[in-house]
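Exercise 7.
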Amino acid sequence: ALLMAAQDTVIANTNAAIATAQVDIQMYIKHELSAFEARVSAFEKCLERLPLQLCNATMPFNSPLQYPAASHVRQMIPESDCIITAEALGLLALPEKPTVAQRRAQIGDFLGVM
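Solution. The predicted structure, written as tokens, is:
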């Protein structure tokens, strides 16, 4: 009887350890899948922008740039509008008081200006 009780305890502990491991594995897989989906989404956004970037990269110097249709930006960017334009394009904020040249470079990179 003592041996049976010990076996039952070992089996119960083993089953508990297996259940815990399964939960840990499921959580890990969900986390990794979520991270993968975020990377795929970012990649898709880059791919959507590629035709626009290729168009702007081949434009003659000082030609009006093409903007994404959803951004509602349609003109050259004066200094005072760089922040508004960057926000309209969904660009991340630049750290610590960026210069107008840095903002224009960020917008240019996004639009494919070489």
